[in-house]
């Protein structure tokens, strides 16, 4: 049986990377819905339609678990998916709770970087309202980072000017924690780090999702029955050309370097 990791694009590879570190002997499918990326700029109704169609395809691949490695898709479709399928469906959400806990100790604020749709969603606002008792959480939509990642653009010469422009209205010294609230954003952790004070923490929700996956599979006695295979799909089409496969391997290697 397989573990499927789903995202609108390559951002979900940041979660796949964490899962493979914790559960190396599993068989994985990584599914990027590249026909419809980016989700964060689309309507809630369209995103839900895309996610449900992809999940139907993945459910036919003999799954033991489905990981929705996309904050936007989680916010709009996770409950529908859990009602529809008998296998565990895990989502991801911006790591607001640990961020607020860390920043309150420092008497600092939290900046959540995410997609526009994630920041607009009721699920996100309910999360902030539940945790942010002192009104220290700010949000910033960064669709340009998704576009950069999907084009395999990671050079600081191109990324830093975009980040500097978007962050210009903020006093960066006020923030104790930055939350990378889109799974594409950890690819740019080094660039974000260069712009904030060295004591600012930069976190994301990928490791928490991977740990939750390991816990759930352990409770179901379903750990370690694979052979460590990994298959890639782009919107239901299996990736078999060597150039793309090499690109994907380079992305996983980049994530190793960012740890």
From TrEMBL:
UniProt-listed SUPFAM superfamilies:
Aspartate/glutamate racemase (SSF53681)
Q: What is its EC number?
A: 5.1.1.3
Task: Name the PANTHER family for this protein.
Answer: GLUTAMATE RACEMASE
From the UniProt record, list the reaction(s) this protein catalyses: L-glutamate = D-glutamate
Does the UniProt entry include the keyword Disulfide bond? no
Any one GO biological process: regulation of cell shape
Similarity-based family: Belongs to the aspartate/glutamate racemases family.
Q: Does the keyword Isomerase apply?
A: yes
Q: What is this protein called?
A: Glutamate racemase
Q: Which domain of life is it from?
A: Bacteria
GO terms for molecular function, please? glutamate racemase activity; identical protein binding
Pathway as given in its UniProt record: Cell wall biogenesis; peptidoglycan biosynthesis
Keywords tagged on the record:
Cell shape, Cell wall biogenesis/degradation, Isomerase, Peptidoglycan synthesis
Q: Name one Pfam family in it.
A: Asp_Glu_race
Q: Which residues form the active site?
A: 70 (proton donor/acceptor), 182 (proton donor/acceptor)
């Amino acid at each position: 049986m397989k573990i499927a990791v789903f995202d609108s694009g390559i951002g979900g590879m940041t979660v796949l990377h964490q899962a493979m570190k914790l559960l190396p002997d599993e068989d994985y499918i990584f599914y990027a819905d590249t026909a419809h990326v980016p989700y964060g700029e689309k309507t809630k109704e369209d995103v839900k339609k895309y996610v449900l169609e992809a999940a139907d395809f993945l459910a036919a691949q003999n799954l033991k678990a489905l990981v929705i490695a996309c904050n936007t898709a989680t916010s709009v479709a996770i409950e529908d998916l859990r009602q529809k399928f008998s296998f565990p469906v895990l989502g991801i959400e911006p790591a607001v709770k640990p961020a607020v806990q860390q920043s309150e100790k420092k008497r600092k604020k939290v900046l959540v970087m995410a997609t526009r749709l994630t920041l607009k969603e009721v699920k996100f606002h309910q999360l902030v309202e539940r945790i942010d008792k002192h009104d220290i959480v700010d949000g910033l939509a960064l669709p340009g980072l998704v576009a950069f990642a999907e084009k395999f653009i990671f050079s600081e010469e191109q990324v830093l000017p975009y980040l500097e422009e978007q962050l210009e209205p903020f006093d960066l010294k006020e923030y104790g924690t930055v939350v990378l609230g889109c799974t594409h954003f950890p690819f740019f952790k080094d660039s974000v780090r260069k712009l904030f004070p060295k004591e600012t923490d930069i976190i994301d929700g990928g490791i928490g999702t991977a740990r939750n996956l390991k816990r759930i599979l352990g409770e179901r006695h379903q750990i370690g029955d694979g052979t460590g295979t990994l298959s890639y799909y782009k919107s239901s089409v299996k990736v078999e050309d060597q150039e793309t496969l090499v690109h994907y391997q380079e992305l996983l290697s980049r994530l190793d370097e960012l740890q």
